[in-house]
Amino acid sequence: ATVDKHESSSGGEEDKDNHERLTNMLSNMGMTSALRKADYKGREDAYYATLARQLADFLRPKIKKQQMMTLTDVYCLYNRARGTNLLSPEDLLLAIDQMETISVGLSHYEF
Predict the structure, then answer these.
(1) Mean pLDDT, the chain, as a whole number?
(2) Is the distance from CB of 47 to CB of 55 less than 8 angstroms?
(3) Nearest Cα to Cα of residue 31 among 78, 86, 66
(4) What is the DSSP string of 26-72?
(5) Any idea of the CA torsion for 93, 64, 23, 101, to the nearest 10 degrees?
(6) Is the pLDDT at 93 greater than 80, yes or no?
(7) For 46, how many CA atoms within 13 A lie in the half-sphere containing its CB?
C-alpha cells in the first residue's frame, strides 16, 4: 500500500478559507476575535476593556432569555466558546468590573 501526498497549488487560498471559516464560527458564538492577554503586554487596562466589550457582546443574547446569570455560568459558557484560549477567573472578574466603567449596558450584582 502506498500513500500519495496531494499538494495543491492554492495552499495559501485554502489557509485563507480556513481562517475565514474559523472567524465566522467565532462570530456566530459571539466571539469577535481570539483575544489574547499576551498581545496586550503593558496595556492591561486596554485588555480588560476589550475583554469586557467582547464578553458583553457574547452575553447579550443569552441574558435576553434569562435576565440574569451566575458568574459560574458566565465563566463556563465563555470559556467553552473560547476553546483552548481559556480565560482565568481573575481576568473574568477584572473584565466584569470594567463593564460599568466603559458603559456596555451590563453590570454585576453581589448578593
Answers:
(1) 78
(2) no
(3) 78
(4) HHHTT-SS---GGGGTT-HHHHHHHHHHHHHHHHHHHHHHHS---HH
(5) -40
(6) yes
(7) 9
Nearest CA-CA partner of 36 in 74, 96, 91: 91
Q: pTM score, two decimals? A: 0.65
Give the chain's end-to-end CA distance (angstroms, integer). Answer: 66
CA distance 22 to 107: 30
Residue 35: other Cβ atoms inside 10 A: 18
Q: How many residues does the chain have?
A: 111
| Cell digits of residue 81 | 466558546
Residue 106 vs residues 6, 11, 20, 34, 73: alpha-carbon distances, Å: 51, 43, 30, 21, 15
C-alpha cell read off for 80? 467553552
pLDDT in tens, 49-60: 999 999 998 888
